[in-house]
Amino acid sequence: MSGKTIPICAAAMLLAGTAQAQPAATVTVQKQRHHHPRGMHNTVIRAHTAAVPESGGAATVETPTGVPVAAPATAGPSLEERVRRLEEQLDAQREKEQAEHTRLTSLEQSFNDTQWSFDNARPTVKSGDGRFTMSVRVRFQADQANFFQKDPHDPNNTAQFKDLSSGAVVRRAFFGVEGKAFSDFWYELRFNAGGSNGGGGSPPGTEGDPVLSLARVAYLGIPNFELNAGVIEPAFMLEGTTSSGQLPFLERPEIDNIAADSFGAGDARRGIEARYQKTDTFLPGDNLVLGVDLTGAKTGSSGGHGNNGDEQTQIMAHGSYRVWSDGISNVSFGGDYSRAYTGGGIGAINLQDRPEVRVNGDRLISTGSIFAKNADMWAVNGGANFENFYAGGEYANFSVDREAAFGGHTVDKPEFSGWYVEGTWVLTGEPKTYTVSATNNEVGGFGAPKVASPFSWSGNSWGAWEVAARYSDTDLNWNEQAAVLADGLPGIAGGRERIVMLGLNWYLNNNIKLQLNDGFVHVDKLNAPGGTIQYGQNFNELALRLQFTN
Question: Quick check: pTM over 0.90?
Answer without folding.
Answer: no
